[in-house]
């Protein structure tokens, strides 16, 4: 019965096709016309090989596209961004990070890690662009040429001479295209590896930010009401500025939603509590002035100053409370950068009003006098004279 000969591995078949194609190309360039049937077999095998490589390129394009999308979900990076200020990388630039003869430089290593997602995206952009160009060459040049070559070979059967020059040129184009796309595809695995590393770096960054954010809010929650409110406000405002202006680009929808829906209301609520406490203290202080200061002119001046400060903080508290109602009522998917800007402006106005109210009450002994003796009353009158009546 005999035994079937083992099939050649893919690499051996490709090498064998390469040798046969070059041999046939040498015949054509020498001006000889090889057998039509043998020439058709070589051309068909080359065409099939190109289509196989094109299918592999489609698969790699899809795979890299999915990884790029994951990186973009973690970082504010666009595939079209010029993320690294260097010349456009060529195929030979798909290499590791490298190191000096004396070993790794820590500063350089940290900078490389920080730039890793951007560099991975640049590698992906270059590879995808190369694959796009090669796909265009296949669609616009090679496939139309194959039709012409086949027509030429079939017409030669009727006695017409073969178009040797056109067939040889097509073979050269096919060999060149296969070498180019094979070289590009050989780096696809490296690009995918760098993109996966970039995703891990982005996830680690996010986890680290969440850890420190949680720790910050834990410390804030355990502090005095006035101190914790100010700490929360400063932390939130710094984060808004960092995420809005670090790369001179506006907040994206996810960052805006997180800043507003998760933290803005909490920060505003804490500082509204402080403002309410100051409103009550201003009211109590004005009442103590009218009760304990005998001079009518001094009472009018002192109460008017306290009243002006209270009216200001009352207005700011009213506006901020209305904004909080709007922020609470808005759906997460409808959050926009405008809400963040409004929340930031309202918080800054509230902090300014709180600071002016505290300045008006600095050193005021009203919380401790409690109608319990002449010494406390005299202390309060001195405060009115030295603070309210001299401003």
How would you briefly describe this protein structure?
The chain is mostly helical and 391 residues long. Helices cover 78% and strands 0% of the residues.
Overall form: rod-shaped
- In which range does the helix fraction lie? over 70%
Largest sheet: none
Assembly level: single chain
Order of helices and strands: HHHHHHHHHHH
Structural class: mainly alpha
Mean pLDDT: 76
**What count of helical segments does DSSP give?**
11
Radius of gyration: 38 Å
Question: What is the number of domains?
Answer: 2
Strand content: under 5%
Number of strands: 0
Low-confidence stretches: 1-9, 81-112, 245-257
Draw up the topology in text:
Blueprint: H1 10-29, H2 36-74, H3 106-156, H4 164-186, H5 188-221, H6 225-245, H7 253-292, H8 296-329, H9 337-361, H10 366-369, H11 374-388
Helix pairs in contact: 1-2, 1-4, 2-3, 2-4, 2-5, 3-4, 3-5, 5-6, 6-7, 6-9, 7-8, 7-9, 8-9
For this entry, give a set of tags:
single chain; 391 residues; mainly alpha; rod-shaped
Describe the structure.
There is one protein chain. The chain has 2 domains: 11-82 and 112-199; 223-388, no CATH class. The N and C termini lie far apart (116 Å). It has 11 helices and no strands. By secondary structure, it is an all-alpha fold. The chain has helices at residues 10-29, 36-74, 106-156, 164-186, 188-221, 225-245, 253-292, 296-329, 337-361, 366-369, 374-388. The chain is rod-shaped and about 130 Å long. Helix content is 78%, strand content 0%.
């Amino acid at each position: 019965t005999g035994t079937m000969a083992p099939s050649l591995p893919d690499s051996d078949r490709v090498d064998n096709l390469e040798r046969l194609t070059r041999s046939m190309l040498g015949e054509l360039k020498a001006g000889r016309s090889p057998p039509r049937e043998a020439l058709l077999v070589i051309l068909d095998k080359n065409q099939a090989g190109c289509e196989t490589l094109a299918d592999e390129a489609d698969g790699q394009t899809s795979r890299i596209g999915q990884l790029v999308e994951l990186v973009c979900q973690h970082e504010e990076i666009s595939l079209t961004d010029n993320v690294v200020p260097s010349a456009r990388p060529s195929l030979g630039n798909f290499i590791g990070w490298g190191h000096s003869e004396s070993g790794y430089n820590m500063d350089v290593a940290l900078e490389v890690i920080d730039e890793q997602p951007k560099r991975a995206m640049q590698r992906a952009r270059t590879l995808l662009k190369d694959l796009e160009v090669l796909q265009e060459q296949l669609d616009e040049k090679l496939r139309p040429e194959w039709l012409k070559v086949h027509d030429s070979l079939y017409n030669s059967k009727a006695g017409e001479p073969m178009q040797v020059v056109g067939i040889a040129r097509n073979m050269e184009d096919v060999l060149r295209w296969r070498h180019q796309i094979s070289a590009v595809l050989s780096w696809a695995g490296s690009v995918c590896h760098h993109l996966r590393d970039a995703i891990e770096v982005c996830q680690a960054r996010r986890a680290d930010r969440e850890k420190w954010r949680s720790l910050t809010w834990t410390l804030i929650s355990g502090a005095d009401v006035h101190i914790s409110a100010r700490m929360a406000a400063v932390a939130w405002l710094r984060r808004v500025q960092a995420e809005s202006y670090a790369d001179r680009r506006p907040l994206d929808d996810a960052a805006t939603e997180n800043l507003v829906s998760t933290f803005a209301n909490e920060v505003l609520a804490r500082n509204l509590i402080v403002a309410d406490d100051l409103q009550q203290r201003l009211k109590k202080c004005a009442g103590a002035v009218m009760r304990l200061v005998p001079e009518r002119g001094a009472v009018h001046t002192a109460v008017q100053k306290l009243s002006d400060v209270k009216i200001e903080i009352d207005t700011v508290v009213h506006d901020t409370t209305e904004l909080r109602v709007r922020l609470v009522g808005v759906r997460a998917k409808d959050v926009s950068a405008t809400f963040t800007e409004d929340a930031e402006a309202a918080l800054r106005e509230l902090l300014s009003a709180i600071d002016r109210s505290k300045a008006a009450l600095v050193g005021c002994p009203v919380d401790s006098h409690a109608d319990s003796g002449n010494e406390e009353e005299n202390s309060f009158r001195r405060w009115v004279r030295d603070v309210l009546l001299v401003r």
